[in-house]
Amino acid sequence: MIELKLPTMTCGHCVRAVTAAVQRVDASATLQIDLPSQQVRIESTQPAAAFTAALAEEGYAAA
Fold first, then answer.
1. By the 8 A CB rule, do 10 and 60 touch?
2. Tens digit of pLDDT for each residue in 17-39?
3. How far apart are CA 63 and CA 56, in angstroms?
4. How many whole angstroms from its chain centre is CA 32?
5. Quick one: CA torsion of 6, 10, 16, 22, rounded to 10 degrees?
6. Which domains does the chain have, with CATH numbers?
7. How confident is the prediction for the chain on average, in pLDDT?
8. What gap in Å lies between CA 51 and CA 63, rounded to an integer?
9. Which pTM was predicted?
10. CB-based contacts of 5: which residues, under 8 Å, 6+ apart?
């Protein structure tokens, strides 16, 4: 389980962009997003670095 805090994730559009970025890395990843706490949990066989890089490209750098 990969857990990330994304401080710039603040709205529904952000949730859709984060979801799309995660799915580009691993289409079969399981994703849980808690918008109020800005937390993302990803279950995948891909390395965490692949997700953090993809999210940073979208403007959602992990804290």
1. no
2. 999 999 999 999 999 999 999 99
3. 11
4. 9
5. 0
6. 2-57 (3.30.70.100)
7. 96
8. 13
9. 0.90
10. 37, 38, 39, 40, 62, 63
